[in-house]
């Protein structure tokens, strides 16, 4: 078997070439990701950390207020600048590392799909990602989205390697690292560990063959990943000690309170949750009124802010089970719907295509492709004979759905799960004969000779 380097295959070169072209396409769109994120938190924290290592500021200014992993990724990149870089100098470097991470992610997704199935299904996964290249939209923002997407691709690829060879320690190490990185990019993905332990418990009683081969090593990988996450967050707390940072508990309850009013009385209002876009929304107005009511109650009662919100949230969930259930399903659907909130339909333009008609046509095509991916995933999940084999993939989707379905949902919060959806969607769609024939035809040009698996 000939040794093939990571970037030597035609499919790899095509992925890199098309990725570069996609960057140009996304640049032409009339809407852009926020360059520094909604609150510039990850950008500012990475910038501050890089300045500290350059000796320009003291440690008292370094903070890790939110998820630490994006800061760990961007800060070293920001070190590669002049002595006094502007924010745009740092942004360009952040975009460069984002593009590299996205491209590597696509290479890993192809390999993961090929390892689970074959190179033709791997080709389908790549085609799906290029048909709806939302990941390139996030390249232009210094946020947690791209690092989380990369982490999810590492999880999928590493598990495919584990399933091929569960005896190699390096495969388990990479799998554990991917899980740690994903959770440290998106702490809301922590439920994946809990779901993993449930999978192990099920396999212990129902699938002894799976448990005997993967059980112990999976258990210790999940356990060590959990301990590593705990240690990392403790380290972040040490960094933040005696500094003015976000109150994480308060932020949790603030977002949970938002979620209680999202789609509460307006289940079809998919507008973005802010003052500029939906000031006339009944749910939005009621959310603000309840926040004022809770603040007045906090002042009168002398209770802490967290205690007041915790008491309200528990009582509201228990008191409105039907509304809670309906909200969960609407949020789960909303998490898969893509709407452009940053530009009005009449201001939309894509080259010569302008106006409301092309705005709605663009959204229709984008969401149609996304629905196709989801349908493919469902076909795969219903038809596969071994769900346990792919547990990190569907647990990734389920964990994020459970968390944000009960909390507060935006489509970008589900973004890391696109790795799993495209991988499973490719396997499901390839079972459709018409698609299979088309892919087989394309594959003749992409794979002129069958390549051995790395």
What does this structure look like?
With 454 residues, the chain is an all-alpha fold. It has one domain. It has 18 helices and two strands. It has a two-stranded antiparallel ribbon with strand order 1-2. A hairpin with a 2-residue loop joins strand 1 (349-350) and strand 2 (353-354). Helix 5 (119-131) packs across helix 17. The longest helix has 33 residues, at 208-240. It is globular and about 75 Å long. The termini are close together. Residues 1-7 have low confidence and may be disordered.
Looking at this protein, list some descriptive labels.
two-stranded antiparallel ribbon, 18 helices, disordered N terminus, 2 strands, globular, mainly alpha, about 450 residues, about 0% strand
Q: Mean of residue pLDDT?
A: 88
Largest sheet: 2 strands, antiparallel
Calculate Rg over CA atoms.
23 Å
The count of β-strands is 2
Q: In terms of per-residue confidence, which ranges show pLDDT below 50 for 5 or more consecutive residues?
A: 1-7
Q: Which series of helices and strands comes N to C?
A: HHHHHHHHHHHHHHEEHHHH
Given the helix and strand composition, which structural class is it? Answer: mainly alpha
Share of helical residues: 55-70%
Query: Strand order within the widest sheet?
Result: 1-2
């Amino acid at each position: 078997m000939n040794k093939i380097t990571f970037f030597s295959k035609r499919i790899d070169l095509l992925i890199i070439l098309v990725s570069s072209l996609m960057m140009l396409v996304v640049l032409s769109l009339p809407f852009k990701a926020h360059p520094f994120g909604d609150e510039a938190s990850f950008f500012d924290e990475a910038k501050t950390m890089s300045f500290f290592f350059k000796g320009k500021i003291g440690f008292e200014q370094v903070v890790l207020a939110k998820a630490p992993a994006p800061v760990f990724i961007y800060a070293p990149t920001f070190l590669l600048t002049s002595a006094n870089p502007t924010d745009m100098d740092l942004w360009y470097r952040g975009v460069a590392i984002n593009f590299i991470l996205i491209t590597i992610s696509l290479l890993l997704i192809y390999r993961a799909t090929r390892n689970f199935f074959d190179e033709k299904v791997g080709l389908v996964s790549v085609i799906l990602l290029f048909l709806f290249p939302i990941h390139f939209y996030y390249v232009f923002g210094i946020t947690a989205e791209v690092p989380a997407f990369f982490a999810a691709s590492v999880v999928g690829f590493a598990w495919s390697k584990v399933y091929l060879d569960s005896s190699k320690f390096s495969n388990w190490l990479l799998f554990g690292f991917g899980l740690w990185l994903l959770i440290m990019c998106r702490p809301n993905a922590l439920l994946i560990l809990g779901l993993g332990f449930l999978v192990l418990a099920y396999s212990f009683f129902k699938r002894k063959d799976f448990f005997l081969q993967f059980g112990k090593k999976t258990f210790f990988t999940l356990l060590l990943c959990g301990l590593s996450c705990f240690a990392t967050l403790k380290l972040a707390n040490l960094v933040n000690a005696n500094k003015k940072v976000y109150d994480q508990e308060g932020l949790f309850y603030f977002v949970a309170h938002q979620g209680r009013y999202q789609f509460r009385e307006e289940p079809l209002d998919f507008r973005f949750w802010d003052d500029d876009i939906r000031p006339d929304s009944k749910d939005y107005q009621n959310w603000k009124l309840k926040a004022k009511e809770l603040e007045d109650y906090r002042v009168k009662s002398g209770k802490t802010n967290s205690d007041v919100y915790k008491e309200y949230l528990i009582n509201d969930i228990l008191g409105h089970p039907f509304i809670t259930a309906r909200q969960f399903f609407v949020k789960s659907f909303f998490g898969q719907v893509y709407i452009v909130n940053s530009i009005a339909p009449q201001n939309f333009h894509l080259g010569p295509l302008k106006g409301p008609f092309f705005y709605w046509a663009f959204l229709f095509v984008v969401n149609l492709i996304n629905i196709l991916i989801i349908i493919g995933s469902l076909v795969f999940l219903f038809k596969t004979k071994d769900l346990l084999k792919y547990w990190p993939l569907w647990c990734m989707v389920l964990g994020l759905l459970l968390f944000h379905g009960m909390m507060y949902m935006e489509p970008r919060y589900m973004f890391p799960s696109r790795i799993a959806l495209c991988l499973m969607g490719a396997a499901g769609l390839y079972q459709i004969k018409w698609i299979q024939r088309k892919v087989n035809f394309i594959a003749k040009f992409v794979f002129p000779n069958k390549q051995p698996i790395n």
